[in-house]
Amino acid sequence: KQWYQRRVRASTAAGAVASINVLAQEEGRQLRLTHRAAYNLLREKLLEAGLPVMECPSHIVPVHIGDALKAKLCMEMLLNEHKIYVQAINYPTVPRGSELLRFV
After folding, report:
1. Which of 32, 44, 63, 81 is the most buried (most CB within 10 A)?
2. What is the pLDDT of residues 5-33, one digit of tens each?
3. Alpha helices (H) along 7-67
4. Global pTM?
């Protein structure tokens, strides 16, 4: 049985083209501005709370945790108690001791 296909499905390609068309227009510019404002606000609030926010050139706001178990527990608490989904990034994606939460 084949586990993957080398070609892109027509529906996937159509979705990608539609997304590019939106992003290429004024609506896309507004979406990027709105997203950047949300990114800036989140980063600012996390820093004000004294959390160890790491520098990142992209739309990701990484917060250093430094322990795999603590990162997992923080991720679960944010989801279960606040309905906030974040990703815990652990070894081998990052070196041991560099575990983090990734807010997108």
Report:
1. 63
2. 678 899 999 999 999 999 999 999 999 99
3. 10-23, 26-48
4. 0.77
